[in-house]
Structure formats: structure tokens, C-alpha cells
Design goal:
2 domains, five-stranded parallel sheet, WalR-like, Response regulator transcription factor, Sig_transdc_resp-reg_receiver
Length: 218
């Protein structure tokens, strides 16, 4: 799952991003509304964690642009306000959820996962195929009952392949969904990650390479 964090408090934004990466999310971070709109114009996100009081372009305007754009991103709005009127106002803009600062990080993660289940297509609580069982909430993977330890990006790639439900996923799509914008677009890291995944998942091999198309789990 790919998340955009829009937070003008740099330390808070970086802390949120680092915590979400530990939860296997691919995360980009920006500190103002204009930068958020730029990222949204070129990248596809599942969830946008949006501070409401942003410089340059206000969070309300960013939220309206996301809703009007109909790109499928879900919006979790952050604010220091705890009043009912403010929450209702934020939701009326089209935000899917609302979280007041300060918040517990575990609650933030739970809300992001809940919104992800309503994104493109919905992320199921448990993904299963070809004897593989992946539970995003607990970051657990098993194959035929055998527990498998995966690195963050390995987990993210496997999740994307399972979400495709038997359809091929291109290397470009995997790069976009499992890594943040700082990754070199010409890297071979997808191929390296697939090779590592195959080794850890064991025999018989379940990840097929479709030349010129991508990868698939039948």
C-alpha cells in the first residue's frame, strides 16, 4: 500500500513516515499543500494522511482536489481541533476519516489499513493464493502452514501480487506500489526482490515471470 503523508511539522511527518515504513507501507512525505498536489498529479496513492492546517495551499483545498479528481485516494485528515463541529466540517469536505492530534500511532495505522480496504481494489484482511497466506495487519506470511520471514519490500511486493488475484503485475507497477519516490526508476531491485521471494517461498515456485508483461501468482 502506498501512502502520502502531508504534514508541515517536519519532525512529526518524518516520524509518521518512518513508523509506517516499518508497517510495510511505501511512504512519501511533503510539508505543504502545493507539494501534495504535485505528488498527487504524478503518483497513485491508496491513502493520503493530510494535515488540515497546511501552508501554501490549505489542507481543505487539497482535500477538495482529491475528491474532485476521483483518483480513488482515501483521505485521513489530521488536526489539532477536537470539536465536533470541526470534525463534521472536515468530513463534509470529502475526507474519509478524521483523527485529532495528539494520536496513538497504533490507531493511525489501524485507520489507514481500514481506509486501504476501501481503496483500489479493496485490501482484504487476509490474502490467500497458491498455499500462501498473507495477513497485512500482523505482517505475517505462511506457505502451507510454514511461517516465512520477509523484509519490508519483499512483503509489499508479495502483497501486490496477491492483490492482483491471478492477473499479471508489471515491474513498473511493483516499483510504484512497494517503494517510495526516491527509488531509482532504472533500478533492478524488483527483479532482485522477486528472486529473493522465490527463494524464501520455496518449491514449487509460485511466482511466474511473463516476459514483457510482469509477474503473476497463478
Amino acid at each position: 500500500m502506498r501512502v502520502l503523508v502531508v504534514e508541515d511539522e517536519v519532525m512529526l511527518g518524518d516520524a509518521i513516515a518512518e513508523g509506517l515504513r516499518q508497517e510495510t507501507f511505501a511512504v512519501d512525505v511533503v510539508t505543504d499543500g502545493a507539494a501534495a498536489l504535485e505528488r498527487l498529479a504524478v503518483n497513485a496513492y491508496d491513502v493520503v494522511v493530510l494535515d488540515r492546517d497546511l501552508p501554501v495551499v490549505h489542507g481543505d483545498e487539497v482535500c477538495r482536489a482529491i475528491v474532485d479528481g476521483d483518483g480513488g485516494e482515501r483521505v485521513l485528515m489530521l488536526t489539532v481541533s477536537t470539536t465536533l463541529a470541526e470534525r463534521v466540517d472536515g468530513l463534509s469536505l470529502g475526507a474519509d476519516d478524521y483523527l485529532a492530534k495528539p494520536f496513538a500511532f497504533a490507531e493511525l495505522v489501524a485507520r489507514i489499513r481500514a481506509l486501504g480496504r476501501r481503496s483500489r481494489p479493496a485490501v482484504a484482511p487476509v490474502l490467500e493464493r497458491a498455499g500462501i497466506r498473507l495477513e497485512p495487519r500482523y505482517r505475517q506470511v505462511t506457505r502451507d502452514g510454514r511461517h516465512i520471514v520477509l523484509a519490508r519490500n519483499e512483503f509489499a511486493v508479495l502483497e501486490e501480487l496477491l492483490r492482483a488475484e491471478g492477473a499479471p503485475v508489471s515491474a513498473e507497477e511493483l516499483l510504484e506500489r512497494a517503494w517510495d519516490e526516491n527509488i531509482d526508476p532504472f533500478t533492478t531491485i524488483v527483479r532482485v526482490t522477486i528472486r529473493s521471494l522465490r527463494r524464501k517461498l520455496g518449491d514449487p515456485a509460485v511466482i511466474e515471470t511473463l516476459t514483457g508483461v510482469g509477474y503473476v501468482i497463478r
